[in-house]
């Protein structure tokens, strides 16, 4: 058994969460759930942290929710504990989250990757929603987020047959933002996160909120939300700094205010 179910570190202004149950292909049990959300919230409360990277290991990002932990649960236990609802604390994180995904990202693993804001993967990454083979359906967002990411036909294919999709297919389908060599996945995710870290923290949060709003509202409401958020950013010193830096042909030095 791994002593620590996750490993965390801070690299410059990026908080890294590494799932660390290699003996169970990083199956997501309650201990992982709680430590991941606590770590993400702790990173967010540190004003120096600008973005998060979540990753696993070469063999598995995560092979799903922990089947052995769930197997004997009753309906009433699942219902009354509202099993998996705690993950909304992860999707409430306002900082951008980059998922660096190698190996298996199945069931809850695929769903956790989709809770991140963007996914970096390699050709040998294997995404899937195989819950149908266990006599259940996705329970951490697969039927909703996968459908929004890849459309109805492919989501139905994945959810109804339980087949896996490799990194290339996932990139073609729009699930993966950048497909890179398998051994470059983590470094690329860190580069993306470091690039975000060079921006203004409140502006980054506003940008994430605006894109997320596209999934929650009508176009008219979303456009209004975007425009009002855009207007509000003119209250920031970082807006003045960004536009002054452009005019004076220099690099902006954002102060996060
Ligand atoms: C618990 C798991 C696990 C999981 C793997 N393990 N996935 N334990 N929950 N989701 C454990 C295995 O039992 C095994 O432990 C060890 O990890 C290594 O796995 P192997 O199967 O021996 O590895 P391999 O032969 O390489 O096969 C890899 C695999 C397979 C194809 C990914 O492990 C697999 O099919 N896993 C389950 C994938 C899945 O169905 N995911 C969805 C879960 S449900 P031991 O002790 O035997 O060495 C879900 C959402 C549920 O995520 C929502 C409903 C409410």
TrEMBL record:
GO BP: any one term: fatty acid beta-oxidation
EC number: 4.2.1.17
Keyword Lipid metabolism (UniProt): yes
Record InterPro entries: ClpP/crotonase-like_dom_sf (IPR029045), Enoyl-CoA_hyd/isom_CS (IPR018376), Enoyl-CoA_hydra/iso (IPR001753), Enoyl-CoA_hydra_C (IPR014748)
Reactions listed under catalytic activity: a (3S)-3-hydroxyacyl-CoA = a (2E)-enoyl-CoA + H2O; a 4-saturated-(3S)-3-hydroxyacyl-CoA = a (3E)-enoyl-CoA + H2O
Gene3D superfamilies cross-referenced by the UniProt entry: 2-enoyl-CoA Hydratase, Chain A, domain 1, Lyase 2-enoyl-coa Hydratase, Chain A, domain 2
An MF annotation (GO) of this entry: enoyl-CoA hydratase activity
CDD domains: crotonase-like
Keyword terms of this UniProt record: Fatty acid metabolism, Lipid metabolism, Lyase
Pfam family, one: ECH_1
Function: Could possibly oxidize fatty acids using specific components.
Family (UniProt): Belongs to the enoyl-CoA hydratase/isomerase family.
Name under which the protein is recorded: Probable enoyl-CoA hydratase echA8
Originating species: Enteractinococcus coprophilus
